[in-house]
Design a protein that fits this description.
Helix content: 10-25%
Low-confidence stretches: none
Structural class: alpha+beta
Distance between the termini: 25 Å
Radius of gyration: 17 Å
Number of helices: 2
Shape: elongated
Length: about 130
């Protein structure tokens, strides 16, 4: 919800189409920028010992925002979207989730791709009671 609430222009309209996890972009939309949003929790480490239901664990993960623009678009559009994606989570903490040091990198594409893209990755961590 945080991403969707912030990924808007001043009029309240989404900046781009947002695709979640394994959805695919539909044919006929190749001329518009879009993003793929995903969350992966990949780490678990005990933070305390105790009876079941009273153990604290530290979970870590990465939130990824893949940003795609058509190859014939100017790079300024990609740069603007990347900056917006980074700013949404920079130094944020909400619902007990701490977001850390967003970073971006260019995605390698197939030679026949119609997209140029970057990925913004935002590491996060939170405590869970199990």
């Amino acid at each position: 919800k945080h991403f969707l609430n912030q990924w808007k222009d001043p009029k309240g309209k989404l900046l781009t189409r947002v695709v979640v996890e394994n959805e695919e972009i539909k044919a006929g939309e190749e001329d518009k920028p879009w993003v793929r949003f995903s969350v992966d929790i990949f780490s678990f480490s005990p933070d305390s010992m105790g009876a079941k239901g009273n153990r604290r664990v530290l979970r870590k993960g990465i939130q990824s925002i893949q940003i795609f623009v058509p190859l014939n678009h100017k790079t300024k559009e990609l740069n603007t979207l990347r900056t917006k994606a980074i700013r949404i989570y920079e130094g944020e903490e909400f619902n007990g989730v701490n977001f850390r040091n967003p970073r971006s990198s260019v995605m390698l594409e197939d030679s026949d791709s119609v997209w140029y893209g970057e990925i913004v990755q935002i590491p996060f961590e939170f405590i869970e009671i199990i």
